[in-house]
Amino acid sequence: MTLRLYSAWRATAPYRVRIGLAIKGLAYDYSGVDLLAGQQRSPAYRAVNPQGLTPALEVDGRVLTQSLAILEWLEETHPEPAILPKAPFERHTVRAMAGIVACDIHPLNNTRVAAALVGLEMSETDRLAWIQRWIVDGFTALEPMVARDGRGFAFGDTPTIADCCLVPQVYSARRFSVDLTAFPAIVAAADHAAAQPAFAAAHPDRQPDKPAAM
Predict the structure, then answer these.
(1) Using an 8 Å Cβ cutoff, are 12 and 35 in contact?
(2) Would you call 208 exposed, middle or buried from its count of C-beta atoms within 10 A (0-12, 13-18, 19+)?
(3) Torsion angle of C-alpha atoms 8, 178, 105, 154, degrees rounded to 10
(4) Do 177 and 125 contact (CB within 8 A), yes or no?
(5) 151: left (phi over 0), alpha (psi -120 to 50) or beta
(6) CATH numbers and ranges of domains, the chain
(7) Nearest partner of 185 among 157, 137, 151, 134, judged by Cα
(8) Using CA atoms, how far apart are residues 62 and 42, in angstroms rounded to an integer?
């Protein structure tokens, strides 16, 4: 099986998939997509992913899109080590945690939305407040879940899809100067996970498309 990941070094959605691939121990070729330059909207990339978003994972010529769907596919095709619990209620909890990040926080703060806010002539200060607001809103819902069910990681004592989503979102929160004081369980789980080798390998600073000047 040959894998190629279309990724953007600092974007949180491909960061999730890089973590999943690393946990599963899967090697892949890397194709960087420059979101700030608009490469995701180019005809060449839209031929890969017509939605013009990252990530996309090419598997023996077939293309998978949407980070959560890709993580579920990884779990189904490479079940060990597992990134979903076995019990249905526990699986629901992990999926709900991931959904808070991937469906409720991230879509309001991605590159497309940021560009739209610029087009609406929102000031840089107001754009930052917008980003911070939605991260805090999502983390406020997520914090008690992690506090209740986390035992080192966001859920339980092994990494799950929830951690694949949480670690990139905490990275983003820190990038945008979100005050994380009110979220000790989230911070502890994310920092614990981020220190593990699979998560460290997926970190934005270790990606080949990171600009040299940063």
Answers:
(1) no
(2) exposed
(3) 90
(4) no
(5) beta
(6) 3-80 (3.40.30.10), 88-199 (1.20.1050.10)
(7) 151
(8) 19
- Rounded CA-CA distance 5/58 in Å is 6
Least confident of 64-73, 113-122, 200-209: 113-122
pLDDT at 58 over 80: yes
Whether the model clears a pTM of 0.70, i.e. scores above it, the answer is: yes
- Amino acid in position 211: P
Cα–Cα dist 144/7, whole Å: 31
Q: What contacts 129, CB < 8 A, 6 or more positions away?
A: none
Coil, helix or strand at residue 57: strand
- The whole-number pLDDT of residue 112 equals 85
The pLDDT tens digits for 186-203 are 999 999 999 999 999 999
